């Protein structure tokens, strides 16, 4: 259900299609459907236990991510970005829902700390939590996501030093920590030899930029894959 002019809100009756493996309701980027009436995500969607992919994006919901999404244990892709969702991310994402390869919750109003349980998503390749209202530090459990290729935590209120353990995520190709309150760049980021995109802009970074950062991207095989680094608007 992509680029249409549906009116009203999502029908709870969709939850009766219990054989569904893919459900997508996607508006135009940053433009929710004009006739869509904001409402909570129907709890009946939690009956779709065979879903592998659930994309409810650019819609304009009200309320939280339903805790009963814990039942969707076969999910590999969960995309709920640009949809006005609030509250904390259910901790069961990582406890019961463990097969995710892509989790995208960008551009909502999510609050609280980043759940440490996300560190159990050992198959995760893409984690986008940017443009929310997360606080605190990055939980060290995220360092267990050794398959992670894309990590976006930009535009939140995350604090402290950028963790040195990020250097363990050797598959990272894209890292966005911009628009937060980080204070220090660890030299261990230089271990990210597959990195092609690094944005640390608009933080409170102080001191010298470690020379090891020059090693980022050194393992990229293709000469045309340029490394992008942005450390603007800091106190370096």
SSE diagram, text form:
Blueprint: E1 22-26, E2 53-57, E3 77-79, E4 86-87, E5 102-104, E6 109-112, E7 126-128, E8 133-136, E9 150-152, E10 157-160, E11 174-176, E12 181-182, E13 197-199, E14 228-230
Parallel strand pairs: 1-2, 2-3, 3-5, 4-6, 5-7, 6-8, 7-9, 8-10, 9-11, 10-12, 11-13, 13-14
What structural keywords apply?
236 residues, Leucine-rich repeat, LRR (right-handed beta-alpha superhelix), mainly beta, 0% helix, nine-stranded parallel beta sheet, Disease resistance R13L4/SHOC-2-like LRR domain-containing protein, 14 strands, five-stranded parallel beta sheet
Look at the structure and give the mean pLDDT. Answer: 91
* Helix fraction by DSSP (H/I, runs of at least 4): under 10%
Structural classification = mainly beta
Number of E strands: 14
Query: Domains counted in the coordinates: how many?
Result: 1
What integer value in Å does the Rg equal?
A: 19 Å
Spatial gap, N to C terminus: 47 Å
Strand-and-helix sequence, N→C? EEEEEEEEEEEEEE
Q: Can you tell me the CATH architecture? A: Alpha-Beta Horseshoe
Number of helices: 0
Q: How much beta, percentage-wise?
A: 15-25%
**Main β-sheet, in a few words?**
9 strands, parallel
Strand order of the largest sheet: 1-2-3-5-7-9-11-13-14
Based on CA inertia axes, which overall geometry fits? Answer: elongated
Could you name the ranges where pLDDT drops below 50 across 5 or more consecutive residues? none
Query: Might you state the CATH topology name?
Result: Leucine-rich repeat, LRR (right-handed beta-alpha superhelix)
Query: CATH class, anyone?
Result: Alpha Beta
- The CATH superfamily turns out to be Ribonuclease Inhibitor
